[in-house]
C-alpha cells in the first residue's frame, strides 16, 4: 500500500506543479479547451489524505447531485464503498 500511496503522491505533486500539462492531457478526453482546464487545474489542492466523515459526507452530496441530474444511472452510498482499512479473508 505504501508503494501505491507514494506513487499517487508523486503524481499529485507533478500535477500540482504542471497545470498546463494536466490541462493538455485532459482536454481531448473531456472535450474542454485546454486553457479553461488550466484555470480549473490551478484551483485544487492535490494531496493524499484519509477520507474523514466530513469528506465522505461531501462526496455523498456530490453523488446525490449527480444522480438527481441523471449524470450517473443509480444512487451511490459513498460510506458503503469507502475502504475502511480492513481486509476480508
What tags apply to this protein structure?
0% strand, 89 residues, single chain, mainly alpha
Quick recap:
The protein has 89 residues and is mainly α.
**Terminal residue distance:** 17 Å
Shape: flat
Biggest sheet character: none
The parts where pLDDT drops under 50 for at least 5 residues are none
Instruction: Briefly note the structural class of the backbone.
Output: mainly alpha
β-strand number: 0
Describe it.
- It is a single chain.
- With 89 residues, this protein is mainly alpha-helical.
- The protein is built from 5 helices and no strands.
- The mean pLDDT is 87.
Helices, strands, pairings?
Layout: H1 2-17, H2 19-30, H3 34-41, H4 53-68, H5 78-81
Helix pairs in contact: 2-3
